[in-house]
Amino acid sequence: MTGRLAGKVAVVTGGASGIGAGTIRRFVAEGARCVVADFQADVGQALADEIGDDALFVEVDVTVEDQVAAVVDAAVERFGRLDCVFNNAGVVGAVGPIADTPVEAWDQTMAVLLRGVFLGMKHAARVMVPRGSGTIISTSSTAGITGGLGPHAYTAAKHAIVGLTKSVASELAGHGIRVNAIAPGNIVTAMTADVASGDPDDLETVRGHIERSSPVGRAGVPDDIAYAAVYLASDESGYLNGHTLVVDAGQTTGGRPSNFVASTERMIGAAGRRGV
After folding, report:
1. How many domains does the chain have?
2. Is 227 marked active-site?
3. Which of 154, 227, 231, 239 is catalytic?
4. CATH number assigned to the domain comprising residue 20
């Protein structure tokens, strides 16, 4: 522990598992207190119990505004302040050819991936603007940087997060609030395991898929994204605003391209609603 986030309070949506849980643990190790915000009540509460007094679990559906507002209010009520909101909750969502994508599946995917980010930004700003400080981080994806790396709805939403990050950063900069995004490459999580094998607990299969297509010869893990989130949440990134930090081992910058999503999308007929 180096205390890079000492005294700070953060909300992490999708915080019960995967990237979110990795970030919660890393934030707390760096001195922060955190709200684990997720719809997975059992694993979310277990994580908060594991951490102890520095964590609070709040059940949330990020598509419902009142619930997102309540998470933000719970952070202030429990810990007395709010310094960071990490909009990380996500799903794979609608998959398949564009001509066959059901509108309902498209809308639900957009609700989780984009409306959830909008609501997190909105209610973070509600609390942070009066204080004149704060950081907002959102999870985009390499599929939000280039095409062909994810299903259509997922790709559209992740591109939109990049644009929304820039737009909101421009508005809130004058209030002392920085707004940035992270674009992870392929990371070993329950969600990617579900895509690879249909079993969210089969992390070894997805690790093998990702290793074989990784430019650096290893799979990305939640800590790789958590370290990036620590930087964006800390004062060290004080001159960084409106930026999308790509953490993908060079996949989108000339490394060997990954065919992980393309090769595994055919294996799934539907995606469970599971945090990134």
Report:
1. 1
2. no
3. 154
4. 3.40.50.720
